[in-house]
């Protein structure tokens, strides 16, 4: 029997340093997130980052926490519930990190008699620290605990016309009542090294955009390429002016060079260039979360206004929009009835 496993990133159990610490430990000890040898990762994460970060992150989580819990979890649960209403198949929700684990979700499907699973990483783009780690963990759990289960994975959908249509429609709605003079597409950043590591040809990705116009197998796993592609496709779909749109990368940790331009620097640059009314969209996330609600909607607004900007709007992620639910249901149905997946 077929069934569906939706997987998002996950959140701590509560916005306290006590609960944030084990969550960050699991997250940052993932070798696809902090990709250094284990001993060094131990020193870096447990010896340095976890000494101060849980307190700082807990403070940020407190600012965005809802009565029902973490926005990312609550929104993912609402989305799952709506998808369930559109399909006959069992649909379970798991998280890569935290207590709502992938294993628990697989167990839920197993108990319903599911032995053929469609795995849906809830990320539009491929990155080893997001999409890839979900796939690897889900396959590991399946092989270790549910060896007779079959698993098929939904590919990254950053460029699918039907996804671009839904994303563009949500952006158009957000821009309807906002007289913007610039739209910033802010994607979660990753260290530049991750791009090189994910390049199967080992020489294609130049991380300056010069490679992205040359067709290559590397694009299947190039996060930077895929982000710029999403921006271009939305820009074309909505007919946005070339000089009113730009792309940037947020949420970097100190240390290595991360993908540029950095979103916080862009807030300042755009304001200094005289842009007064800025709309920001965050298409690396399908649901609002700490990185969109705190870093972009709250901190970003302050940064832009301090630099001279006047009006600022963060346009929500797709969350539980009906057209996004319909789209997910249509991908599930194509897989269920024709074994077809978007490519
Ligand atoms: C080396 C560190 C990190 C990499 C690489 C990274 C990639 C990455 N992350 C997301 C999506 C989300 N990240 C979120 C929070 C978050 N991310 C990092 C670090 C890296 N992410 C940290 C330490 C945190 C926790 C909060 C903090 O202390 O700043 C979230 C929000 C989770 C929530 O509960 O709301 C999301 C979502 C992607 C898509 C990605 C690679 C493309
Ligand atoms: Fe992150
Ligand atoms: Fe490229």
Q: Gist?
A:
The protein has 343 residues and is α/β, with parallel strands linked by helices.
Q: What's the structural blueprint in terms of helices and strands?
A:
Elements lengths: L1 E7 L8 H12 L9 H27 L6 H14 L6 E5 L6 H10 L4 E6 L6 H18 L4 E4 L7 H16 L5 E7 L3 H7 L24 H16 L6 E6 L12 H10 L4 E5 L8 H17 L4 E5 L6 H17 L5
Parallel strand pairs: 1-2, 1-3, 3-4, 5-6, 5-7, 7-8
The structure holds ligand L6N33NVT and fe (ii) ion (2 copies).
Description:
The chain has 343 residues and is an alpha/beta fold. It has helices at residues 17-28, 38-64, 71-84, 102-111, 128-145, 161-176, 192-198, 223-238, 263-272, 290-306, 322-338, and strands at 2-8, 91-95, 116-121, 150-153, 182-188, 245-250, 277-281, 311-315. The chain has 2 domains: 2-157 and 322-338, 3-Layer(aba) Sandwich (Rossmann fold); 161-315, 3-Layer(aba) Sandwich (Rossmann fold). The strands form 2 sheets. Strands 2-1-3-4 form a 4-stranded parallel β-sheet, with helices on both faces. A 4-stranded parallel β-sheet has the order 6-5-7-8, with helices on both faces. α5 (128-145) links the parallel β3 and β4. α3 (71-84) packs across α11. The longest helix has 27 residues, at 38-64. The protein binds the ligand C=CC1=C(C)c2cc3[nH]c(cc4nc(cc5[nH]c(cc1n2)c(C)c5CCC(=O)O)C(CCC(=O)O)=C4C)c(C)c3C=C and fe (ii) ion (2 copies). The site of one fe (ii) ion has 2 residues, from loops. It comes from Muriicola soli.
């Amino acid at each position: 029997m077929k069934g569906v496993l939706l997987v998002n990133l996950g959140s701590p159990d509560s916005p306290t340093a006590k609960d944030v610490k084990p969550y960050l430990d699991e997250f940052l000890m993932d070798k696809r997130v902090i990709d250094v040898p284990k001993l060094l990762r131990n020193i870096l994460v447990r010896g340095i980052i976890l000494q101060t970060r849980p307190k700082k992150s807990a403070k940020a989580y407190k600012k965005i926490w809802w009565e029902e819990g973490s926005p990312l979890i609550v929104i993912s649960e609402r989305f799952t519930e709506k998808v369930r209403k559109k399909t006959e198949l069992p649909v379970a929700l798991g998280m890569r990190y935290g207590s709502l684990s992938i294993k628990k979700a697989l167990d839920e499907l197993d108990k319903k008699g599911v032995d053929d699973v469609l795995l849906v990483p809830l990320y539009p783009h491929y990155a080893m620290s997001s999409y890839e780690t979900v796939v690897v963990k889900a396959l590991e759990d399946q092989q270790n605990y549910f060896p007779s289960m079959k698993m098929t994975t939904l590919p990254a959908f950053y460029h699918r016309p039907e996804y671009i249509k839904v994303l563009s429609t949500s952006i158009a709605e957000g821009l309807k009542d906002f007289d913007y003079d610039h739209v910033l597409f802010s994607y979660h950043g990753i260290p530049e090294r991750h791009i090189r590591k994910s390049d199967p040809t080992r020489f294609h990705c130049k991380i300056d955009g010069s490679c992205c116009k040359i067709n290559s197998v590397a694009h299947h796993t190039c996060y930077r390429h895929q982000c710029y592609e999403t921006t271009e496709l939305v820009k074309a779909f909505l007919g946005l002016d070339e000089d009113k749109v730009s792309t940037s990368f947020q949420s970097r940790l100190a240390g290595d060079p991360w993908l540029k331009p950095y979103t916080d620097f862009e807030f300042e640059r755009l304001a200094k260039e005289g842009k007064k009314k800025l709309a920001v969209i965050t298409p690396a996330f399908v649901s609002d979360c700490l990185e969109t609600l705190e870093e972009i909607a709250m901190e970003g607004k302050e940064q832009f206004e301090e630099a001279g900007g006047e009006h600022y709007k963060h346009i929500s992620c797709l969350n539980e929009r009906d057209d996004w639910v319909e789209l997910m249901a249509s991908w599930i149905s194509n897989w269920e009835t024709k074994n077809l997946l978007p490519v």
